[in-house]
Amino acid sequence: MFVLHEKLAEDTLPLASSELSELRLMNDSHYPWLLLVPKRVGVREIYELAPPDQQRLLRESSAVGEALMTVFDGHKLNVAALGNMVPQLHLHHVVRFEGDPAWPGPIWGVVPPTPYSEAGLRDMQKKLVPVISAYRSVS
C-alpha cells in the first residue's frame, strides 16, 4: 500500500490525485513549486516504473509544467527528481524567475523556506486551478 514519505507529507500540501500520482504544493512561498509523487510502492527511480506509468508520468509532468509556465509566466521551469534526502520517487516542478532568491543557481539551501500564510495559500490555490485542471485532463 502506498504511503507518502513523512518528509514529503511534512513539507507539502495536497492539491489533487490521479490514478498514478499525487500533485502536491511545496509549502515554500518563495517559488511556485509543485511535486508529482507516483503512488507506487518502493519506487525510487523513474526507470523502476512500469513503461505505461513512465509514459503517464511524463504526460502529467508535461501538463503540469506547461500550465505552471502559462499561469506564472516564468523565465525557466526546473524539473528534477533528486531524491537525495527523500528516496521515494517525486518530481519537482519549480517556476524560476530572473531575480528570484536563488537565481540563477539551484534553489536548494539558498534561503530557508517561508511557509504560506493562510491568505497566501488561498491565493496560490486560486492561481493553481488551471494547473490542477491540466493535471486532471491527462488520460
UniProtKB/TrEMBL annotation:
InterPro entries xref list: HIT-like (IPR011146), HIT-like_sf (IPR036265), HIT_Hint (IPR026026)
SUPFAM superfamilies for the chain: HIT-like
Highest taxon above the source species: Bacteria
Domain HIT residues, every copy: 34-103
Family annotation (Pfam families): HIT
Protein name: HIT family protein
Source organism: Marinobacter halodurans
